[in-house]
Amino acid sequence: MSPFPMRCTSCGEYIGKGRKFNARKSTPDENNLGIQIFRFFIRCTRCSSEITFRTDPQTSDYVCEAGAKRNTELWWSGDAVTETLDERLDRLEREEQDHDSTEKDAMADLERETRSAEKRMAVADALDEVRSRNARLEKLRREGVDPLVPATEGRMTAEDGKDEEDARRAFASRSAAESETLDQAEPSQTEAATDAMTRQKRAPKQTKLLPGLKRADAPSSKLSLVGYGSDTD
Fold it and tell me: Which one of 95, 100, 148, 153 is separated from 111 by 20 to 30 angstroms, measured CA to CA?
C-alpha cells in the first residue's frame, strides 16, 4: 500500500495514496535514535519500473528514494532529512531553553498583571471611599448640619443625645410604675375606711331574756342623802 501520492519518473504514471502493491521489505543497518529504518520496493503499474521508499522516524513519515517523486513534500522535511544526531540534540536543547525562557516570561507577565490588578482595585476602593464621603457631606448640608464640625464634637453630641434619651425613658418608666402602685393602693384604703364606718354604725348586741322576766336595774352609783342627819349614826 503506497504511503503517499507519487508520480513515476519513468512513465509519469500517477499513483495515489493507499494503492495496494505487492511490496518487498528490507531491513538495512540503519536507525534513527535507536528506531529501526525499513526500506520497501514496489513496481509501477504501468511501466513496471522499480520504486523505492523508506521509513523516516525523525519526521514520522516516509522518504521516496528512487523511481518516483512525491506529489506533495512536507514543509519541515527539507531540514529534517539533513539533520544529524548532534544537530538534533542541539536543536532539542535550544527548544528546551526557549521553552524555559518563555515560561519565565509568562510568569513575569502574570506577576505584573497581578500587581496591576491589585493597584487598580486599591484605586477603585479609594474612589469609592471618596464618593461615599462626598455623599455623606452633601446629605449633612441638605439637613442643615455644618459638615466642617470636628468629628469628635459630632460624636460627643450624638452620645449626649443618646444619654438624654436613655434618662428620659428611665424617668418615664419610673413614673408609670409609681402611678400603677398608687392605683393599687387606693382601693385598699377605701375598703379599710368602709369597714371602720360599718363597725361604728353596728347596734350593740342585746341579750335575749326568758318570757316573764325583767332586766334588773343596775345599782345607782349616786350617794343618797336620806337619813344623813339621823342619830343612828
Answer: 95
Residue 86 pairs in a beta bridge with none
101: which 3 cell numbers? Answer: 525562557
Q: What is the pTM of this model?
A: 0.35
Positions of the chain with pLDDT under 70? 75-83, 146-161, 171, 174-175, 177-233
Retrieve residue 14's grid coordinates.
500517477
Q: Name the nearest CA neighbour of 23 among 37, 46, 47, 3.
A: 3
11, 198, 206 from 24: Cα distances, Å: 21, 147, 160
pLDDT value of residue 186 = 55
Q: In the prediction, which pLDDT does 54 show?
A: 92
CA dist list (Å): 193 to 41, 184, 199 = 142, 16, 10
Amino acid 137 reads L
Report d(CA 220, CA 134) in Å as an integer.
109
Please tell me the chain's helix, strand, coil percentages from 3-state DSSP, rounded to the nearest 5: 50, 15, 35
